[in-house]
Write a structure and sequence with these properties.
2 copies of one chain form a homodimer. Chain A is α/β, with parallel strands linked by helices. Chain A contains 10 helices and 11 strands. Chain A is globular and about 40 Å long. Chains A and B meet through β7, α10 and β11 of A and β7, α10 and β11 of B.
């Protein structure tokens, strides 16, 4: 596994980031908060309800490393913001925070997927992907897609010291994707791999449905590694 | 990397298959023909032009192991057929062969992708995916999606003894997906991994656009491995 080719100054910048996590009371948000805080980043968990955000923060760390706040306050106080919100309401929630998120990198990790009797499937998104929908409602932010395939169960499991997977990072701004690759690599075992422009994010989000199928068939917490990189 | 959990009798069945490859004169088709023939399968390369099929066959092996034929003859003579045809004309070509393909497993490895000044992108498919389009025009066949991400360059390179990647196999018939997983595993270094129903094949096909972006960024022939399986 080769190095991810992120400039060392970008890795240093990632280490200094205060990361806001919108919708951070869910398993994915708490899992990312836990791992990033353990890596040394300051993390602010956001929620519609500041009290619930504080409780989620307390479940994965302690102040000043991990704190909770209302989503808007988390967005304003953070250097970089991860949107780990439910697909339902994704567009509305981000649109309301457009002012607070202006000028910031917003990392969308939302997977528009559904479940029925035949299993998991991808939900069609008019904008092409959750990430492109975020970009449409956040014209003043730089949207990056990442962290779609990271298992919340593994992120939250204290017995899992290292993950075994790459994080695919998508976006149209080279510094932003480099920075998010470097941020992903602060999670032990994770490598950040650039995987294309934002317009190709839909299939990466949708692929989560396939990983769910893999998990069901093989009783696994599947992730992906990119070979020959 | 765990075993792929394909029954041994299915692996034995895969070893006995005569494999037809429609559109087998392209790099992907020739590459698969070369690797499967070297593994011991009989392979019939199909083309609109039987003469071109014979020339492609001669470029990757020799009779009786590898032969060439017109697409329809290749489809009739094979036990299992891989569709490695261009996306342009995919539906029409398969529809014309529906009779010859009746009762057979058809493995679709076609990636509906395009290129423009900004790189590679996925082409929207009304049926959801090339594989579902194949299933729509081949009601008497069992369609499986697989081999989307295998690099033709690596398949054809005599210096590459083993590939380093999993082949994601999608379909709604368990015996068919097991058999195609076993067939994929006849290529050295490849593991076949079940990755969901046919309705989730669109994102697997589209992900080829992301692997093209990876290849450009990292000067690689990227493949995927599924972790924790």
């Amino acid at each position: 596994m080769a190095a991810a080719q992120v400039p060392p100054e970008t890795a240093a910048e990632a280490a200094r980031l205060t990361v806001g996590i919108l919708g951070g009371t869910g398993d994915q948000g708490r899992g990312l908060a836990r791992r990033l805080a353990r890596a040394g980043n300051r993390v602010i968990i956001g929620s519609r309800d500041a009290g619930r955000a504080a409780a989620a923060a307390a479940s994965v760390g302690s102040p000043p490393r991990v704190t909770g706040a209302a989503n808007e306050e988390a967005a304003r106080a953070a250097d970089l913001v991860i949107a780990a919100v439910p697909w339902e309401g994704h567009s509305d929630l981000l649109a309301r925070l457009a002012g607070a998120l202006e000028g910031k990198i917003v990392v969308d990790c939302v997977n528009p997927i559904g479940f029925d009797a035949r299993g998991c499937y991808a939900i069609g998104v008019p904008e092409g992907s959750a990430a492109e929908q975020a970009a449409a409602v956040l014209p003043g932010s730089t949207v990056v897609g990442a962290f779609h395939h990271v298992s919340a169960t593994l992120l939250l499991d204290p017995e899992v010291a290292e993950l075994d997977q790459d994080v695919l990072v998508l976006g149209d701004d080279r510094h932003a994707t480099d920075l998010v690759q470097a941020l992903a690599e602060r999670i032990p075992g994770v490598r950040g791999v650039y995987a294309g422009r934002l317009r190709t994010c839909g299939q990466v989000e949708a692929l989560t449905a396939n990983l769910v199928a893999v998990n069901r068939r093989y009783k696994a917490h599947a992730g992906l590694r990119v070979t020959d990189v």
